[in-house]
Structures are given as C-alpha cells and as structure tokens.
Write a structure and sequence with these properties.
alpha+beta; 3-stranded antiparallel sheet; 15% helix; elongated; DUF1737; DUF1737 domain-containing protein
Length: 79
C-alpha cells in the first residue's frame, strides 16, 4: 500500500518531514543527507513549476522511527 514504511503506517513511533526546495543539486543533497541520517523516503516526490519565480520546485516526504515519544518541541532535522 502506498505510503507504508517497514510494514506499518507512521504513528507515535515515527516522525515526518517534508523536504522542499528549488530543483537544484542542493535539494538532492538535502534528501541524500536525510537518508544518510536514517530517514526513509515516504511516498513519491512532487515536482511543480513556480510561475511567479520561474523555477521548478521539489518536495519529498521522509519518515524516521524514534525511540522517544513524539513532542512538538523536537527539532526534526536534528533527529
């Protein structure tokens, strides 16, 4: 089923991030860095034209299993 990771849907033991950026190598490095820190791709990437700025924009969701309970005070990028 789309969106499932490791056999289950994200819940209290997972955190979610949506990585976004212009369609440049910097965006690819952002996703690669997240993967190297244990995040897992979640769903398909998104790619859209920003007509106001004349650039392509990218987005990729990632999830990560955590040992501690989720807290809104967490800095997701530091996990």
């Amino acid at each position: 089923m789309p969106g499932w990771v490791s056999g289950h849907f994200p819940g209290d033991d997972m955190i979610y991030r949506l990585l976004t950026g212009d369609d440049t190598s910097a965006f690819c490095h952002k996703v690669s860095e997240a993967l190297s820190k244990g995040w897992t791709l979640y769903g398909d990437p998104s790619y859209a034209f920003d007509a106001e700025h004349g650039v392509m924009r990218c987005a990729q969701a990632v999830v990560k299993e955590i040992d501690a309970p989720y807290s809104p005070d967490m800095k997701l990028g530091a996990q």
